[in-house]
Predict the 3D structure of the following.
Amino acid sequence: MKKVVKFGGSSLADAKQFQKVKDIITSDELRAYVVPSAPGKRSDADIKITDLLYECYELAAAGKNFYEPFLAVKDRYNEIIQGLGLSLSLKDAFDQIEDKLLHSPERDYTASRGEYLNGLVMANYLGYDFIDAADVIFFDEHGFFDAAKTYPTLASALEAHEHAVVPGFYGTSFDGKIKTFSRGGSDITGSIVAAACRAVVYENWTDVSGLLMADPHIVSSPAVIKSITYRELRELAYMGASVIHEDAIFPVKKAGIPINIRNTNKPDDPGTWIVENTARRSKYTITGIAGRKNFCSIIIAKDLMHSQPDFYRKVVQCFEEKEIPLEHILSGIDTMTVIVHEKKFIEHEQEVLSRIATLAAPESLEVESGISLIAVVGRSMKSQAGTASKIFSALADARINVRMIDQGASELNIIVGVLNEDFERAIRSVYHIFVDVEK
Ligand code: ASP
């Protein structure tokens, strides 16, 4: 039985944070494999190592002097090493990076060095073996993660080490060069390592005590979600809630491994459990609320629409031609409403509208912008009568006009559309009726 622990940049921002991390790792025998990010910000004004490295690359690629950010990178690591009292020297590694910046700068290689160097420091500090992600994580010729090549190699590398540090964020592409995941991608590495060693849990340590029921910028001190299913998380994440990189879900989900989001600064907090299925009921009817602003609705009316089976297809085709993703489609007797993201739609607005007019010949076409969508998500909603009525009475009490309603067939969520100016108030009133009132 093994656990994989991934620590984010803020958990490793300085020597003090490293000490907390070591205490966490050594307090549980099962915490065998460690995936570190690069050092993050120590304060709001600080710059993340990864951002400094991107700056080094941009300067080097433009043939400019990159020493200011490069020295800042070196100083940060040397400060951490000194603060921890290690005798480690990163001189050779720094020289190699400098040499590459001078002679053949590569963007992904440069960015990946934040995790690489931090992995070396972490392995030295813990007395664990270092496994370079470049030797065990691979991408295919399309730039996607290559599971078939990675898993056997990674699994056997891990088997050879009882404890090890595997730096996050990067691997090797099919042409042998270093390639990174997208930003925040150390979460993905952690998930892959957990799947490769069939871990009992993938612990993702960060600077919050889990996923919150609502955005703390909108609701003050929202409750922490104790457990959430992967599907619920997907719904909330799509609407903007974020605690872990979205692509980090798939490797562990496939392997049936739960994720536990934990707070390095409050290690006793239980955090959030992200699971495939659970019999645990959440304390509240809903699991969480999230939303996004700036959608548009296009209302298309046509008499006897239902007697024309190809009507929907024609309308959908007009959006498809311009590669505008459809967020929702709602139907009435003689109307059809399409909800799309405002920014993506406006770019091709007139082309799409005139194409609908030609292809589908509707009676009328109306466009409304400035719409926000709010997803109220919860696996317990389907077994509770009165959930929808609670949402709508909360909105009615706050005098908020609902412009659209969509309940997914899975009954996992109810999506409501309100005007942008009512967005924050709508979230607060729904949160209040389910959390403060149900308490
Ligand atoms: N250091 C990388 C970034 O800042 C990857 C990560 O932290 O997960 O995006």
Residues 55 and 349 are 37 Å apart (CA to CA).
